[in-house]
Batch of 3 targets.
Target 1
Amino acid sequence: MFVIWVTGLTLLVLISHGIEASNHRQRSLESNPDEQPYRTGYHFQPSKNWMNDPNGPMYHNGVYHLFYQHNPYGPLWGNIAWGHSISPNLIDWIHLDLALTPTDPNSDINGCWSGSTTVLPGNKPAILYTGIDSQNRQVQNLATPKNLSDPFLREWTKSPLNPLMTPINGLNPDRFRDPSTAWRGPDNMWRVVVGAGIDGHALAVMYKSSDFVNWTRSVAPLHSSQKTAMWECPDFFPVGINGSDGDNSYLNGDQYEKKHALKVSFDSRDYYVLGQYSPETEEFKVETDFMDEGSDLRLDYGKFYASKSFYDSEKKRRVVWGWVNESESDADATKKGWSGLQSIPRSVVLSKSGSQLVEWPVEEIEKLRGYKVSLQNIELQGDLVIEISGITASQADVEVSFEVTELEEAESMNSSRVDPQMLCGETNANVRGKVGAFGLKVLASDDLTEQTSIFFRIFKTNNSEEKKKYVVLMCSDQSRSSLRDGLDKTTYGTFLDLDPLQEKITLRTLIDHSIVESFGGEGRSCITARVYPVLAINEGAHLYAFNNGTTSVKISNLNAWSMKNARIVSM
Ligand code: DQQ
């Protein structure tokens, strides 16, 4: 055992110093890039088979842990266990053995579903997870490390008292899952929320415990909604006002000004609300509610689900991951032998205005930046496409800022009556507007028959209630992303909370073979897409900037980097 630990630690040290012990690159794990053009270079994925939700991320004794929903036996959902990987920096990973597998008829024989970790006093991590018992009921279970002196926490012991929470007193056994990270109130009692659905409405059911083992359901849920049927993967966390870091220090008294975010997953989307939480009264007063008219706060407006955050005490930041599913068929997944990615880990803060969350790829990812090309002050006359050449366009990080000088030419729109995603779909990147579409074409073939376009359009508001004079639409258009049929090519879109009179329009896009993660307005809106080009793979991929509006737009600054592979190895 000791020898294995030393080997593992050596590997971790080598990885954190950027030394590849051998050719452990993720893209070469299974086969060569020509056979596996959609495998990523720097996004987290297991070496093979199915992955969905990120589970229980945490930082413990100098090591980041990520668990995830995993089918160890095949590329489709089933046999769900907890995969486990560790990292020195959130980018390079070592895959370890499974942390939890279905074993116990009373608590999890039919699957170890999603859950979270909480670090208990004495620096002792604990997992709360949903198990599917022999009667297919969803129940909540506890597991703790078998050996706390193993730096990688490889083995986990399930509590003999499992299940600790069962679907009694009106809870629906099919709709009772995904315990959150727990927090302690001023009375020293632990609190945790579990996603649920009762009689067609959704709840974040609250439980309390003094010892983390005996849990009692509170009469009132933390929050509920009549407008949605079931919430999965609730995540409840503080975010500091004025840039403070969003840790859990309210446990020790109210040390900084904060709001709380409640994120829940439903309808394949991750929505959140912001509000004031009082640990004394247990009340969570939301500013706007889920599905309220005019409110559509989401962590990502594209493909991103069942996300989970954790507080990184090392770097004093909150970090979130989301599951990015395939847009291919099950038959395609079976052929390639794997399914599912995790997004790049993103730091999350409250925006300066306090009205929304802002996400940004963790800074560690910048160590993968290689060769760089830059452009400044390039005027893009209407109907112009320019190639950004010299970098590996299939695996890149691109940052661009656009300046729009002819705003007065913008068309009019009443944004409160418009569904932004629908508008992006109807007016795709090829439709000429006045101000826009302008943006990037990524994973594009040299003849542009394949392209994924991330772009903006600007409209004048004609609604007197709008505070701003202009509305910025941000879209990710997958309609021509592949010559292949049978793919989900949904075009995504959202309005970006940015005033083009006051600031430039910025876009950062992370491109990684079959995933395109875009951050508009310095992370105020994120859109993630999965695409499967046929021509625009590996060296066949190109990157362009474009303006398809009738007015001109200036690229103030563009930096694009080739991205190296993350070091992702199995032990
Ligand atoms: N995935 C898990 C559930 C969760 C769902 C099962 C969300 O626990 O509700 O794999 O994607």
Target 2
Amino acid sequence: MSNPGNHPTDGSCIFCKIVAGQIPCFKLLEDDMTIAFMDINPVNPGHALAVAKGHWPTVDVIPAEVLAAVAKTAQRVAKAVIGELKPHGVNLLQANGEGAGQSVPHLHIHIMPRRPNDGVALNWEYTPGDKAGIEAIYKRLKAVL
Ligand code: AMP
Ligand code: ZN
């Protein structure tokens, strides 16, 4: 088991086990802060994950520099997916919390190739919002940024 970056780990987390080499994966690449591997439940061929080596569950708790490293790894994988697999499109997706569909509470970005009419439920029709409602929420957020 290796933990050269001395990052936080959680012994019950499946991605921590992959990072530690305790369970196998189809590893695409690895650097100091991140690892990328194929998703075992691909929505489409080529679905991969860019994963922080450390165990931080969500975007609000991960250090910004680690998040940036995960984004960089996701970009590298996306370039390979786009160049080699030539999908119809690619979504990068990062879920936070069960309400957002997160099933593994260890921060990761999905690199999700898309095919025409693949039925992946990520796209939605535009419905114009109520301006006063948008502004009210905007003011609350602006006040804490
Ligand atoms: P999320 O639902 O956003 O937390 O995504 C978790 C993803 O991890 C899902 O797409 C799973 O298919 C994937 N996954 C879970 N376990 C493994 C594993 N052992 N190896 C590769 N991918 C996995
Ligand atoms: Zn973990």
Target 3
Amino acid sequence: MTGTHSRVAIVTGAGRGIGAAVARRLAADGFAVGLLDLDEDGVRKGAEAIVADGGRAIGVKLDVSDAGEVDAAVSKVADELGPPTVLINNAGITRDNLIFKMTEQDWDSVLGVHLRGSFLMTRAVQKYQTEQKWGRIVNLSSTSALGNRGQVNYSAAKAGMQGFTKTLAIELGKFGVTANAIAPGFIATDMTAATAERVGMSFEDFKKAAAEQIPVRRVGEPADIANLASFLVSEGAGFISGQVVYVAGGPKD
Ligand code: NAP
């Protein structure tokens, strides 16, 4: 990246798991980072750790599906760190159930966090990106976008993230803004630990069984996603836009 671009990144869902790893990695790459999450304690600790390592970071509590909170949080990052030009839409939840047992609340909350949340965040951040004539958007999709039993809500949301990404790439490209999606397979985080619990398996056994189905014979770690996010927001990735990259230890589409 040249010195003329704002090096301020926002990562949602940065309180733990993949978002926390991406925030740490972007800070190591030289970005000032706004860590945003429902979990105030998680983002405060994450920001403190980055500052202790000599970086710049703030933690901000928000619900990404609340328009007022989103606008306030993005303004706070802009005021305290500078105009945000990198956005990682990572906040996510699962509310798994077979369709005959799925409630409207399960459906609305999952689409609300992933799709409405990413829309609200991107609408707020693109203002700074287009002003700066440079930006990078990375959206978290999932291999579940291709279909996964018990996840009609989540797979619809994650497939939606792919269309959202491609349209952002088309609309914002002329402003120097790229948009890409990362579609992880099995990544060891609290989210997959909760799935193990739901199906009545220990997390160790669940990971072992998953690894047997993955060509590289291991499950993913948050750093596997952070490595790609780091590249996609770099200057060198400026001609890659509207793509979905599966990070799943094997082919998925
Ligand atoms: P995680 O460990 O459950 O972390 C998700 C974070 O998002 C949590 O800190 C959570 O806060 C936060 N969050 C949830 N709802 C929010 C909201 N409305 N506003 C702000 N923050 C909110 O999940 P992860 O495994 O790191 O997953 C990160 C992303 O990758 C998600 O989009 C997920 O769908 C995607 N993904 C994960 C996997 C995987 O195998 N782990 C695979 C494919 C895709 P609280 O702690 O307060 O709930």
